[in-house]
Design a protein that fits this description.
By secondary structure, the chain is mainly beta. Helix content is about 10%, strand content about 40%. The protein has helices at about 20-30, 105-110, 320, 450-485, 500-510; strands at about 45-50, 50-55, 65-70, 80-85, 90, 95-100, 115, 125-130, 140-155, 160, 165-170, 180-185, 195, 200-205, 215-220, 230-235, 240, 250, 255-260, 265, 275-285, 290-295, 300-305, 310-315, 325-330, 335-345, 345-365, 370-375, 380-390, 390, 395-400, 400-410, 415-420, 425-435. The strands form 7 sheets. Strands 18, 19, 21, 22, 23, 26, 27, 28, 31 and 32 form a 10-stranded mixed sheet that branches. Strands 1, 3, 4, 5, 8, 9, 11, 13 and 14 form a 9-stranded mixed sheet that branches. A hairpin with a 2-residue loop joins strand 26 (about 335-345) and strand 27 (about 345-365). It starts with 20 loop residues before the first helix and ends in a 33-residue tail after the last helix.
Length: about 550
């Protein structure tokens, strides 16, 4: 069966209770060691300023006397605190508040522990010494190291909503080794930082209703888990108010940025190194509504990114470098006003960036190409227009934030949508119109695609003329064949000839060919009076 280290007290379960002995000890010993030179004491006690403390010592007193001495840190000599004999007679320097032996029946029980109300200056080594018996070479000695723990919570509880709760624990002994950790009301260890002064700091940023409760500071002396651990509970509650928890707010210079869509750009945000958390907020174009798009909380060890495919940090370690900038590859819908915010304790830093995103496109329109330029976050823009080879094009604004121009489709080249900003800067988004593809291999045509429609029309007209000529020749052939079979041929008024359709239909039916019944054959010539004479439709030819 595994042996477990005891868990810190608290309202919720502790993850330490489920760890094996070796793992739990390793975690606790690495949770913020206090530097020291090594121990020459037999026991150690951690007390809190203003609270009672008891220094252990046990021995059969008999008819002897017990003496308690104190050596503050850095001293080489001992000073008497309290002496007592088996007759319960006491004397000494009365150096401690409410000093006494913890057990009133110490002569018989052998419990010679010293009790008093601790102050911060009471840290140091305490010597419990019992006089020698007859035949003993040296007295019984027991040294106890007293460590005074100082805990501060800032801002003082209750903590304003949205503020940062700071939990600082500091031990007074310089030559003591051990671990100091903070636990949440749910028993979860909090990330901590060891300060140069030796204090151990944990923070709870963005303090809310779920964060209030009893926070536990655990001090664990170095050694096996059998040694006692010292737990100190501190209640931290929330002050529900509308007051801004950040009393010191500084602002960076506002900037206006313009970018073509899908072109990477930097959103600069520089501040001094060290922060609790920072975030990036976005206000939609032409709106007052803001959204959180990025959050990096150092103490909660959490990151939230609403645009992971297009937004990332510009520096791998922003807290150490002080570079809280971002890299963004914007889509047209990413335009708007961005605010970078960096928070440290009650201080905040804000920098606003107005981003205009330009998107150009082209689509066929009749015989030409319609160029469209869309830009969002319009306030920084003075005007927008299309150019070709630095020459303006005739364009029109079809909607706010949109300008269009139509160009011939057979004129390849670069067309630029130019934006003039109110601060005098310009930005150009380029639309490249490629040349038409070359003709397929083996095609010897020298004509460009622009003459293809004219050639097609000419071909159709040629085909119609050929068909009309064929019909005329076909009619003449029929009449000639018919009159050749009628000997001698019919002649009516010179060259005006008329053929009987019934005879012709009968004759052609015998050959197996079909003549439409609606076909009409006639030939008109002008007479002497410039009047055309219509042939009688059913007049027969005379021999």
């Amino acid at each position: 069966m595994d042996v477990h280290c005891p868990a810190p007290s608290g309202p919720g379960p502790s993850i330490l209770a489920s760890l094996p002995l070796a793992v739990a000890c390793a975690l606790l010993l690495l949770s913020g060691p206090v530097a020291g030179k090594g121990s020459d004491w037999d026991d150690s006690v951690v007390g809190q300023a203003g609270a009672p403390v008891t220094l252990p010592c046990s021995a059969q007193l008999g008819n002897r006397t017990v003496h308690w001495h104190w050596q503050p840190a850095g001293w080489d000599s001992w000073s008497l605190v309290l002496s007592a004999n088996h007759k319960q007679e006491f004397w000494g320097g009365a150096r401690k508040l409410e000093q006494r032996l913890a057990d009133p029946s110490f002569p018989s029980s052998g419990d010679l522990s010293l009790a008093f109300r601790a102050r911060q200056q009471d840290s140091g080594q305490y010597l419990c010494e019992v006089d020698t018996k007859e035949g003993e070479m040296k007295p019984k000695r027991h040294i106890v190291l007293l460590v005074i723990l100082t805990v501060s919570v800032g801002p003082p509880s209750p903590v304003p909503a949205g503020g940062t709760a700071r939990l600082l624990a500091r031990v007074s002994a310089e030559d003591w080794r051990g671990g100091v950790s903070w636990f949440s009301p749910q028993g979860v260890p909090l990330p901590r930082e060891t300060l140069p002064s030796g204090g151990v700091l944990s923070k709870v940023p963005r303090f809310g209703p779920a964060d209030q409760g009893n926070y536990t500071c655990q001090v664990l002396p170095q050694g096996p888990c059998g040694r006692p651990r010292f737990l100190f509970s501190h209640a931290v509650v929330l002050r529900d108010s509308t007051q801004d928890p950040f009393t010191n707010v500084s602002h960076g210079l506002s900037q206006s940025l313009v970018s073509s869509s899908l072109s990477p750009l930097s959103l600069p945000c520089l501040w001094s190194p060290g922060a609790d958390y920072f975030q990036l907020r976005w206000r939609l174009p032409d709106s007052r509504k803001t959204q959180l798009v990025f959050l990096f909380d150092r103490w909660r060890q959490s990151t939230e990114n609403r645009r992971p495919a297009r937004l990332r940090l510009a520096h791998p370690d922003p807290f150490r470098s002080g570079n809280y900038s971002f890299l963004l590859t914007p889509k047209p819908g990413d335009a708007g006003r961005y605010t970078c915010e960096v928070f440290l304790d009650e201080s905040a830093y804000q920098k606003s960036l107005s981003l205009t995103v330009v998107h150009v496109s082209g689509q066929p329109s009749g015989q030409g190409l319609l160029l469209s330029c869309l830009y969002r976050e319009r306030p920084p823009v003075r005007r927008a227009y299309w150019t070709s080879q630095s020459s303006p094009l005739n364009g029109s604004s079809t909607a706010p934030g949109q300008v269009s121009a139509e160009v011939p489709r057979h004129r390849p080249g670069n067309y630029s949508c130019c934006l003039e900003l109110k601060d005098g800067r310009t930005h150009a988004a380029v639309y490249a119109l490629p040349p038409p593809p070359p003709p397929p291999a083996g095609d010897s045509s020298l004509y460009s695609s622009s003459v293809y429609p004219a050639l097609a029309v000419a071909g159709v007209l040629s085909l119609l003329l050929a068909l009309a000529a064929a019909v005329v020749l076909w009619k003449r052939g029929i009449c000639q064949q018919h009159t050749a079979r009628e000997e001698p041929p019919c002649a009516v008024e010179g060259e005006n000839l008329y053929e009987n359709p019934d005879d012709l239909r009968k004759d052609w039916d015998q050959r197996g060919e079909f003549v439409p019944p609606t076909a009409v054959y006639m030939e008109l010539n002008p007479d002497g009076q410039d009047v055309y004479k219509e042939l009688e439709r059913y007049e027969e030819c005379h021999q």
